[in-house]
Write a structure and sequence with these properties.
Helix 10 runs antiparallel to helix 11. The chain is α/β, with parallel strands linked by helices. It contains 13 helices and 9 strands. Strand 6 and strand 7 form a beta hairpin. Helices cover about 45% and strands about 20% of the residues. The longest helix is centred in the last third of the chain and has 22 residues. Strands 1, 2, 3, 4, 5, 6, 7, 8 and 9 form a 9-stranded mixed sheet that branches.
Length: about 300
């Protein structure tokens, strides 16, 4: 069974199309759990309509208070028992073979490493506009992400795994036992757990249309615009880096004593958390030697600028 977790909020404009795309999946062994985070538009009524039509597959809950996207997703992950889990954004469009392709890769991982080993599969995504018209065939390529760099040191500095493309096995989900206060994003937190305790596999095919509009929590833009925006706001870059270190520090506080965290991973995590206390030259040298880098020369030049 695959449990699909959707965090909904003010999603009336696009959520029907997303629900229909999930219902159209080739794979049929799934259930969809949706937690609405206090929507004031027609989202709750739309969700109740679908739940009434598909009671065996769709479950809806309205949160008593707004949790925010990250805590909403992670709370759902902790609340349900399942063999496999996936995150779903409310405004994307899943390709019909998304579940089939992703599960196939997950089963290959479990055959290789064992089902007791935490495993994460993420994929590429096509980028579309608010009307679902194609913009870019590959999110990872337009972002210039190096998807081969899935080690813990790299992921401590840069998240490469898109939450709406993820599949987790039970062993990975079982590691999420408390809600972090400083996690930057739910998918980043899960990716860190996978890198620290298990394995991550990247499927280099788009499995969904990643819709871009004015209300995305996290969207995309072309790489040139990204670079220009970063260079204009060094203060925001420094704040983001501080938040990244704070996230790692909390991850260490939660998992540092975990019996299944290897000595090598613990050392990588501890060394990263200590970087802000080092002098400028040593901090930059340790960053490069430890592999705490981002994708590509341009991003890493920016990183060296603000470290």
């Amino acid at each position: 069974m695959i449990t699909i977790l959707m965090a909904a909020y003010q999603g009336e404009a696009y959520i029907r199309e997303q629900l229909d795309s999930i219902l159209a999946q080739e794979e049929t062994d799934w259930r969809l759990v949706i937690w609405d985070d206090g929507s004031q538009d027609a989202t709750p009524e739309i969700l109740e309509e679908y739940a009434a039509c598909y009671p065996q597959q769709i479950t809806v809950r309205r949160n008593p208070k707004n949790l925010g996207s990250t805590k909403n997703f992670l709370s759902m992950l902790m609340a349900y028992d399942s063999e496999y889990y996936m995150f779903a954004d409310q405004d994307d469009i899943w390709h019909p073979d998304k579940l089939t392709r992703t599960k196939r890769r997950m089963l290959q991982m479990e055959k290789r490493y064992g089902k007791e080993t935490p495993a994460l599969v993420c994929t590429d995504a096509a980028v579309v506009d608010r009307e679902a018209k194609p913009l870019q065939p590959s999110f990872t390529r337009v972002q210039h992400f190096d998807m081969k760099q899935r080690s813990l040191p790299h992921l401590l500095m840069e998240n490469l795994c898109i939450g709406c493309t993820m599949m987790m096995n039970r062993a990975l989900a079982a590691l999420i036992t408390e809600l972090p206060e400083k996690a930057r994003f739910h998918d980043w937190w899960v990716a860190l757990a996978a890198a620290a305790f298990g394995n991550i596999s990247y499927l280099d095919v788009p499995t969904l249309d990643y819709r871009q509009h004015g209300h995305n929590v996290v969207g995309t833009q072309d790489f040139t615009s990204y670079v220009k925006g970063r260079l204009k706001d060094v203060k925001a870059m420094k704040a983001a880096l501080e938040a990244t270190f704070a996230q790692a520090e909390e991850f260490l506080s939660i998992y540092g004593d975990h019996p299944k965290l290897s000595g090598e991973r613990l050392s990588e995590l501890s060394s990263f958390v200590r970087l802000p206390q080092m002098g400028l030259a040593e901090r930059r040298l340790r960053t490069l030697r430890g592999g705490y880098v981002k994708s590509g020369l341009v991003r890493n030049l920016g990183l060296m600028l603000i470290l």
